[in-house]
Protein 1
Amino acid sequence: MADTPTPGDPHATNTAGNPLLERAYALADADEARALYDEWAERYDADLTDASQGYVGPEVAAGTVERVAGVDGEILDAGCGTGLVGVALAARGARTIDGVDLSPGMLEQAKATGAYRRLAPADLSRALPVAADSYDVVVCVGTLTHGHVGPGAFGEFVRLTRPGGAIVATVLDDIWDSGGYRAEVDRLAQMAMVEIVSTDVVDYRKAADVSARMVVLRVAQ
């Protein structure tokens, strides 16, 4: 994929023995990613929320969105996967959520949740065919990680977010620095494009003892 992160060691991140997660952390390009997630779509939720993984990232992110921006506006779930984030946001009262994802199979699962206004295929390593300032919130969970989308996506999230709006994104903690994400967030702040609200370490796949940075940015007015 274009703009993939500078590789860390994917084997340093605990996969709790899940072979599909091991493959996900070693993806080489968008075609490989699409094929993997299409294959995984029907059992992704069961695999990631079981006792060995404890994938709490979507719930933590949805709670963060509610706390820092509210859920009444238009929200883009970037890299929505099967819709775990959309479901968590809808449970908090969000009613206008759009989702994009690389995998048609994952989008089918997201559609079945009923949480989304619109769903569309998209490669987050490229500019989206969406007008600037389209959303009050952009949320991205599970996509800024090994073998997936690199730090340049933050600039696109800024473009899509209305002035004063919020970006809430998880970045796997062990590539926050080595993958260039911290540097890109700092660059956007230095250019006065965003205010860095927080980059706290939070539980991500809690049972596997894997954490992430919860990056919260406020887009400049």
Protein 2
Amino acid sequence: MGAPVDDLIQAALADEDPDGPTRWRAIADLQQRGDLETFTAARRLCASATVAERVLGVDILGELGRDRPFTDKTMPVLRYLAASEDDTRVLYSALIAFGHLRDPRALPSVIDLSTHPEATVRYGTAYALPNVLGHPADPAGLAALRRLAEDEDTDVADWASLGLTLATAHTNTPGQQLSDPPSR
């Protein structure tokens, strides 16, 4: 099954670059495991006192397992962080995770963060919204996406405009997901 979970976590944490290749290789290895041990370790990281560990936990949970077997257990963790977290990096990672999970239960959390004062969080929201709108698309979610398409930050507005176009053009196409957003 590869390297032990703790070794992979330590490797990811040792790479201080949030987009570093060592970090993301370790995360990908953890995500591919898709087992209870990895889920438990990631959930524990989400409750850490350090931002780096919370971000890592969220990044692991966002794509844990081929068929996302822990989505029902992951959603409450991510929704709690979305409601209680102050750190922009953790919020951004939670929003990207919501987008990867494509679960409409995330929609209230994503809408709540759509008016966040930090552009990075709104950018994550613009990514997540089209993926959690549901089918048919939720009107409140579409309204939030329209608002983000008019955002003062051009990256947020551009990503939201793309998401809005895809959401309205393919409202009856289940499984439509935007590709990963470029790093912010």
Protein 3
Amino acid sequence: MRFGRVVHAGGTSYVEVREQTAIELECAPFGGVRPTGRAWPLDSVRPLAPVEPTKIIGVGRNYHTGAEPAVADPGEPLVFGKPPSSVIGPGAPIVLPAGAGQVDFEGEIAVVIGVRCRSVPRERALDVVFGCTIANDVTSREHQRSDGQWTRAKGYDSFCPLGPWVRAGFDASDVEVRTLLDGVVRQKERSSSMIHDIPTLVAWCSEVMTLEPGDVILSGTPAGTGPLAPGQEVVVEVDGLGALANPVVAG
């Protein structure tokens, strides 16, 4: 089952996607799927970011062959926050801010929380996960190096593309993550190479903060990240989840 948010002739709605049809829902599907009776052909609607998170929790250095291969296993998950205002949907432009220096793509699997939860044991962590979608954790490398923490580097508007759909109950334990820049594969790794798997990440984050329905945990990126330039298109693909494509423009 796939879910998301779309723009249609009458406004904006949460939908369930069945084959080539977008079926309107009364509200976000976390508390149950309640169709309104309206539906549209999928090619007549425009996908938005599939959820509206209260918070986005990023995870750094989480692949054995990761973006920082010379850095040792951090022991515990290394987490940071991205603001909800950084979220954009499929097809929306990634805007490169003036003065941000090198801005890199980071293709990732995004975990979507389904219920309000706190202090979830690892063995029950998947019970609070609604599903997974695709993310691009866009990052200013210059600010990441200079600031000593990553809020500004990760937090610009448009620096968190998400989508196109959330697939409920998705098993993300061993799937391939790929990032293509102008059609050339730049990242390619299996999620089984994560240092901390998804149940561990969910449990660890829930010990720190209450997780709300629709919140997103970005599970980390493999090796191969690189700079973006205006006029390019970056596409993140995850087997079973589809493809998230975004153009790049100058700010």
Protein 4
Amino acid sequence: MTEQPSSPPPGSASGRGHGREPLAAVLGGRKGALDASLPPAAFVLGWLLAGRSIAWGAGAAITLAVVVGVLRLVRGDKSRAVVVSLAAVIGAALIALHTGQAEDFFLIQLLSNVASALAWAASIVIRWPLLGVVVGLVLGQRTRWRSDPALLRAYSLASWVWVFLQYTVRVLVYGSLWWSGEVVALGIARTVLSWPLVALTVAVSGWVLYRALPNDHPGLRHPVVGTSGS
């Protein structure tokens, strides 16, 4: 579900407090999101060049997905992530071939963003905001951040940014274009709403996250545990 900028986007963190690094620096690079936008672009290009042939579009998408997967393995990406990405492209191609509708190549992407929006919203409601879960895993904190009421509240507020700015926007755009059968527009939207939108989401959620923390809070890497209200 996720898809991240290599350098800190402007505004991703406020300079307030000690030891506060940009959220983008914690989450990592944007290569995964950029790579994910290439097979859909190949599908649309192959579909157009071959006279709107879904078979040629599917072949182009799968071929490029394999090439991208090999390059990701060479640069040290986890094999599980590569296999999942390749399987998603193959699944999308098979759906389009089965239905005979080119726009259905993007159906998995649409449904996955619906599921992501619901999952992130539910995580906030049950007080396990997924942004906190992700950052906690990246920083090796496991669930210690949940013992810090300030961090729990900040992660909850920042997670709403992911719900609305990333997943809901994608659902609305992809859904309307899919319903209208706009294959080329779907391909363009798939690229525009990949790493550029992820970078914007990380920047805005980082700003919200740090604005929600008290001025004297030590930062994401240092949960204040053992306080009341946890």
